[in-house]
Amino acid sequence: MATTDQPGRAAPALVIDPEEARRERRRKRERIGSWLLPLTIMGLAIVLWDRICVWNEIPQYILPRPGVVLATVIKDASLLFSSLMVTLKITVLSLALAIAGGVGLAVLFTQSRFIEMSLFPFAIVLQVTPIVAIFPLINIYVDDQTTKLLLCAWIVAFFPILSNTTLGLNSVDRNLIDYFRLNGASRWQTLWHLRLPAAMPYFLGGLKIAGGLALIGAVVAEFVAGTAGQSSGLASRIIEAGYRLNAPRLFAALILISLTGILIFLALSWISHLVLHRWHESALKQEH
Fold first, then answer.
1. What architecture is the 70-276 domain classified under in CATH?
2. What residues does each domain of the chain span?
3. Can you tell me the distance from the alpha carbon of 108 to that of 166, in angstroms, rounded to the nearest whole number?
4. 26-57 burial by CB neighbour count: b if 16+ within 10 A, else e?
5. Each residue of 49-97: pLDDT tens digit?
6. What does the pLDDT look like over 226-256, one tens digit per residue?
């Protein structure tokens, strides 16, 4: 007797919607392209750099070949990476102070309109005034060299966090604020449970900007301060290499600064993704 249901028979294959399969293939191509394309372009740029040096017979003290720069990074690793740690320390500390000061002041602005009207213009003045113009005053009033560099980098990184966080705290839906008030929520309960979560995407956006600016501020402050010695940062190594016409070390220091900036941005972007990817539209994967 024939049976229609055989225990050993394989289940029919799952039919995939052609449109869904097409979207999945596109997402896969985008994931691969997000890292393959930048690496390919960077590799081509390095090859072109090397060929330009060879074709035009450019002396090493004017434009070194990429291989010479890499060899310099390895040869001077102890000196360059110790300087990198100095610059990175100033960058991280200034960013931490910018977060504390920017968020704290933004909260005060939200709680009192009069405080915002009184202090926000001073924050704008700090932002629009070049750090090279402010540093002579800092040099007069501050004795410690590390504190000078830290203060300069903090001034540069402070405003993006302040402005973005203030914008986020003030961009809460008014209907939600009224709902909290109708339920008897205090000002601080509204701040903690409504305003701060709503401002988180704005704060994280400002944080990614401030991370790069903190590094720029640390490097520019070293240039302006003219620090020297074994405990100096990468900017001082660039100045020293320029005086000695040591172009390979100069390029090596520049590349380390660039890579550090990229790593800071990637780290802050990863933090932003961790915080927002489960609930905020800016980090959710869009279905096409």
1. Orthogonal Bundle (1.10)
2. 70-276
3. 9
4. eeeeeeeeeeeeeeeeeeeeeeeeeeebeeee
5. 999 999 998 998 899 999 999 999 999 999 999 999 999 999 999 999 9
6. 655 445 889 989 988 988 889 999 999 999 9
